[in-house]
TrEMBL record:
Keywords associated with the record: Endonuclease, Hydrolase, Metal-binding, Nuclease
Origin species: Hesseltinella vesiculosa
One GO term (biological process): DNA replication, removal of RNA primer
Protein known as: Ribonuclease
Database matches in Gene3D superfamilies: Ribonuclease H-like superfamily/Ribonuclease H (3.30.420.10), Ribonuclease hii. Domain 2 (1.10.10.460)
Length: 317
């Protein structure tokens, strides 16, 4: 995991790119905006902070958690900027509000935690440290709030759009941050402008990472028309149908821990490289069976970036 403070640069970057976008996405990372210029001389000034996320449901791409904060003395001014739940806004309106946040950094601060699809899959598949989505969400939220406090920001009020039961989550956060007034409330992104701003930071960051996605797998030439990433999206289903990679299934854009992806992998057959005559007599084997066979085989696929991405190694069985 790495922290990034500098804006990402890319020759193919659009006119507007959030400084929280870093590509290619090889690892999870945290981005923190500069401390608002209003605060260094007023570090004891009470501040309000909001938390929200984007990308929890899709089967591909990053999951992004975000916080935004400002001095309570300027919260009315902040409310007048016109923030609302990012899901209710057009992409153009979200981009415009993200620019407003950047233009208001004299008193508005924000941060994001970008969790890569590889880390999501690894966390949810690792038997020794099994982590579910709720735990990932809690860890990201606690990390972001902690990093803001590390900058000596005096947080006195925190509003959170919840993941899981609100009461237990609020109690958990209160243990980590005693003395802070914490409100965990469903639909907080539509009720509290400071949470709405966090929602926009999260959504715009995730969307721009997907729009500018850089394939790290050597020789891979996949379409970028993967839709919203939700398993119910026809464009996403079409992309999954057309871009399955032999043996490995899918590139690292995909969250392998999603049931939709797991089902596709265990029901997909793969041609095995026996001699032609013997192959005609044998049924094709599923990838699951292929990987568990006791027969040593030579791969027909280049042992390149896929092996590195999925941390694979050839072994004698």
């Amino acid at each position: 995991m790495t922290d990034h403070q500098d804006p990402a640069s890319s020759p193919d970057a659009p006119v507007f790119t959030m400084p929280s976008v870093t590509l290619p996405l090889l690892d999870s990372y945290t981005y923190i905006s500069p401390t608002p210029s209003h605060l260094p001389g007023n570090m004891d000034e009470p501040c309000v902070l909001g938390v929200d996320e984007a990308g929890r449901g899709p089967c591909l791409g990053a999951m992004v958690y975000a916080v935004s904060f400002c001095p309570l003395s300027r919260y009315d001014e902040f409310k007048a900027l016109g923030f609302d739940d990012s899901k209710k806004l057009t992409a153009e309106r979200r981009d415009n509000l993200a620019k407003v946040i950047l233009d208001s950094q004299d008193y508005v601060g924000w941060a994001v935690k970008v969790i890569s699809p590889q880390d999501i899959s690894t966390s949810m598949h690792n038997r020794s440290t099994l982590v579910n989505l709720n735990q990932l969400a809690h860890d990201a939220t606690i990390e972001l709030i902690g990093k803001v406090m590390d900058e000596r920001i005096n947080l006195t009020q925190i509003y959170v759009d919840p993941v899981g039961p609100s009461k237990s989550y609020q109690a958990k956060l209160s243990k980590y941050f005693p003395g802070v007034q914490i409100t965990v409330e469903p639909k907080a992104d539509a009720l509290y402008p400071i949470v709405s701003a966090a929602s926009i930071c999260a959504k715009v960051t995730r969307d721009q990472i997907l729009e500018q996605w850089q394939w790290t797998e050597k020789g891979l030439d996949c379409s970028m028309d993967f839709g919203s990433g939700y398993p119910s999206d026809p464009n996403t289903v079409k992309w999954l149908d057309r871009n399955q990679v032999p043996f490995f299934g899918y590139p690292s854009l995909i969250r392998f821990s999603w049931k939709t992806i797991h089902h596709r992998l265990v029901t997909t057959t793969c041609e095995w490289s026996d001699d032609e005559e013997a192959a005609e007599k044998k049924p094709r084997k599923s990838i699951k069976r292929l990987l568990s066979t006791e027969t040593k085989q030579d791969s027909h696929y280049e042992k390149g970036q896929f092996y590195k991405s999925f941390r694979l190694a050839s072994v004698a069985l």
